[in-house]
Design a protein that fits this description.
Elements: H1 9-12, H2 15-28, H3 32-42, H4 50-58, H5 62-80, E1 83-93, H6 119-132, E2 136-141, H7 150-162, E3 172-176, H8 182-190, E4 196-197, H9 205-211, H10 220-224, H11 226-232, E5 238-241, H12 249-267, E6 273-275, H13 296-309, E7 314-317, H14 323-330, E8 336-338, H15 369-378, E9 382-384, H16 388-391, H17 396-404, H18 409-426, H19 430-444, H20 450-464
Parallel strand pairs: 1-2, 1-8, 1-9, 2-3, 4-5, 5-6, 6-7, 7-8
């Protein structure tokens, strides 16, 4: 039985409901009158149900698809403006006891280099990330109770937050680690993490169990119910995601939106972020071995349909994707991207030797952070290193209330300008700084409140003169 208010995985992610949804979408995808009604509802900026959004995803009418893309771009602008938040992943350890068949960290892989960073190695990596200009990290580890216990993660978070190098500081640490207990989520909350991120990989239970044949991750319910335990543990910003290519994409799309609906129904707060990774080559993993891969056009439509179905959520694209693909989906709803990323354990402070490959997946966008920043500005976006909402307590339902009312821009736009100014003064190349200074002068005029505009102008001068970390 489908019940979005249930705390049982197979009830809030009901296989029968997903199959009924896909049948409904197939039966109605050609009903352009219904499609237009759904698009008109989406124009109200209040989101869509998983069934409504599935109809749009299944609709192949070219004109309606153009409408969907245009609406997704406008909704992104309405909620997030032209800001794009930057972050970098930091892999602490790739020791793992699971047998996930799509991940090179699987326990049977005997030729990948196994690594676990010491606190001193973490310190060097963080300084290198700070020297690039990063302020926000996403911590990653394999699941291994012996090598990567929660105490190791907590110690690493403490180390990261303690480091001040020149004008650098990591102001927000998001965490992507395996499903754990309510007690451990409380510990992560007390450690000051931002968002807890956990990719479902696939919502199809039978496929999930086949793809995770051994290890604690084999337990579908434990993994799928993790966000509820995280919420119980006090973490009110959580991030969802599936690994597109493992299962039929329309099944995953419906399951992902059902999970978002479940979080809203039970906790009153939907996902803070949704990630959309596609399976990529990595060490002994060949993506062509999985027969559910999706092309760039389908991928773009998935992004657009998620954006209009869950208008308030942040959407993340990583360096798994090429620069061209990333640019395309930026226009369709993406609000956060990584830049200058390494998916190996270490590699920021010193390049990893080829014979010691420890990467989780191959990076398709190898540009430096400075090149990414310059590119974003050249195509009309405002790069942001803002972490103010998390540090000012604007999380969970408080953030969602501000975001859904579109009031969050009163804080985010000025904060983006001030954090960009920090980057330009401290880290940017001369060419990037020139483009950035011109952009800031232009964007100041878009701050609606004269008082706020004046404060920002004063703070920009202070940043130029050495002060840091201003925020609304």
């Amino acid at each position: 039985m489908y019940n979005p208010q249930s705390l049982k995985a197979e009830e809030f992610i009901s296989h029968d409901e997903i199959m009924a949804t896909l049948a409904y979408a197939d039966a109605n995808a050609g009903d352009l009158s219904l499609v237009e009604q759904i698009i008109e509802k989406a124009r109200q900026r209040r989101g869509l149900t998983h069934r409504e959004a599935s109809v749009l995803l299944a609709c192949n009418d070219k004109e309606k698809t153009k409408e969907i893309f245009a609406l997704a771009e406008q909704i992104k602008k309405d909620f997030y403006g032209n800001r794009i938040v930057l972050f970098a992943p930091l892999y602490l350890s790739n020791y793992c006891v699971n047998g996930c068949v799509y991940c090179p960290y699987h326990a049977k892989n005997k030729h990948i280099a196994r690594k676990k960073m010491t606190q001193e190695e973490i310190r060097r990596e963080v300084i290198a990330l700070q020297d690039m200009g990063h302020k926000r990290l996403a911590l990653e580890t394999g699941e291994d109770p012996v090598n990567n216990p929660i105490e190791y993660v907590l110690e690493s978070i403490k180390t990261i937050y303690s480091i001040r190098h020149k004008n650098g500081a990591i102001r927000r640490v998001n965490v992507n680690i395996a499903a754990t207990t309510v007690e451990n989520y409380r510990k992560l909350k007390d450690a000051g993490i931002g968002t807890y991120i956990l990719f479902q990989e696939t919502y199809h239970k039978e496929s999930y169990e086949q793809l995770h044949p051994t290890g604690p991750k084999h337990n579908y319910a434990w993994h799928t119910e993790a966000m509820d335990r995280a919420m119980e543990g006090g973490i009110d910003d959580v991030g969802l995601g599936v690994l597109f290519g493992l299962e039929k994409y329309r099944y995953e799309f419906a399951g992902l939106l059902m999970h978002a609906e479940h979080l809203e129904a039970v906790h009153g707060v939907g996902p803070h972020t949704i990630s959309v990774p596609r399976i990529k080559h990595a060490d002994d993993i060949d993506p062509s071995a999985f027969d559910n891969g999706i092309d760039d056009d389908t991928f773009a439509k998935i992004v657009a349909c998620i954006r209009i179905a869950v208008p308030y959520t942040g959407m993340i694209i990583s360096t798994r994707e090429s620069p061209a693909c990333r640019e395309r989906v930026l226009h369709l709803g993406i609000s956060q991207i990584s830049g200058g990323s390494k998916t190996s354990v270490g590699g920021y402070a010193e390049p990893e030797p080829a014979e010691e490959n420890s990467a989780q997946f191959d990076v398709s966008d190898n540009r430096t952070l400075d090149e990414v920043i310059r590119w974003l500005m050249q195509i009309g976006y405002l790069p942001s290193f803002c972490t103010a909402c998390y540090r000012e307590g604007r999380t969970g339902d408080r953030f969602m209330e501000l975001c859904k009312s579109k009031q969050i821009q009163n804080c985010c736009h000025p904060n983006a300008l001030m954090t960009l100014k920090e980057y330009l003064v401290d880290y940017a190349s001369p060419e990037t700084r020139k483009i950035g200074e011109e952009l800031i002068r232009k964007e100041i005029g878009n701050i609606p409140k004269e008082k706020v505009q004046k404060i920002v102008e004063e703070n920009l001068v202070k940043i130029e003169n050495g002060s840091r970390d201003f925020r609304f």
